[in-house]
């Protein structure tokens, strides 16, 4: 949190609307009140539930260690807001500063925060997606239904996509003693986020735990009988029988409601500056519309000002706090969102943690431990400097590597730990083009290209 502002330095009145009532929306609302905003505050959320925590849905909930509806987010403070839950934002009228709602209502604002996040990418064949037993995992309702299906003891579970979500689901299935097949279009699990070296490690790990892992294949059809899933067909001509299929093909950013708004919003998210102010479609920064969380695209100087799109719990919190601070602060008191990305995953008995952006790399080195012992730190570099580190059951070293990232330390890193391999040889990081994967990486480098082409008409000419 920032230092206290004097009352005269806070834009304390007016109307602020937050579209998105999940983690980022809640933390932004709390920060606004903590920093002195005393005006009217409204939060709009598509789900009827109050804000809840999503990471436990693919971990504890699927293992029966809690229910999907017991994951509510703790409140840091009372936000004294109007909650509009169970209603979607349908459109944005920027000219008149109002959010149009799906129930026909509208909300005027002086400042707006977009925190609409993402939704699960559905199975592309609607008839097959409608089969009983086919589902995605994003919401508490999704998790409750999947836990119920797993409790029933299906003969086999099919997981389509081996990113972090798909891998965590597969891990829970094996811990329950269920047979599971994982289909991954890429060369290995987690390859989109961590590259080929750790992807190969993840593949060995899954197979060692009894997963029927099929890489380099796609599911061509989900089959059913009487409206229920019975199995799947693969591009290599093979088939399996399955009672449950979890579609883990990545996320879709919730930006459709912004079509026609004039903002730089599209399938890759909502583009903003480092202070979370949204760009319009011509690249001009707005001063009354901000964005935070999974739906945001923002530049980061540690990664050559590439526009990053992150689906991380920690990023949603940090960015929401920065956005809220800047919404009520004068220009000289605003601050940038420059936090180093970090995320974690628990699967197959291992704790995987990451700092930085592994996909922003050309080389990787196993700096500590080894894949054989199941405890390691992999350090990633790009153009001769450290850009990321991933630990497997060795998280205590990540603070050291985060410092190397923040200081643009040279790659490969010098020995800085007792068990650092003196003869460690950097290898190609083997990060694939995300376009060839069946799931989205946890970090997307979206470059500098606009979301649409603009046609400029000059007066008096063509």
From TrEMBL:
It holds the Pfam family Reductase_C. Its cofactor is FAD. InterPro entries: FAD-oxidoreductase/Apoptosis, FAD/NAD-bd_sf, FAD/NAD-binding_dom, FAD/NAD-linked_Rdtase_dimer_sf, Reductase_C. It comes from Streptomyces gamaensis. This is NAD(P)/FAD-dependent oxidoreductase. Keywords: FAD, Flavoprotein, Oxidoreductase. Residues 15-320 form the FAD/NAD(P)-binding domain. SUPFAM superfamilies: FAD/NAD(P)-binding domain, FAD/NAD-linked reductases, dimerisation (C-terminal) domain. Residues 343-419 form the Reductase C-terminal domain.
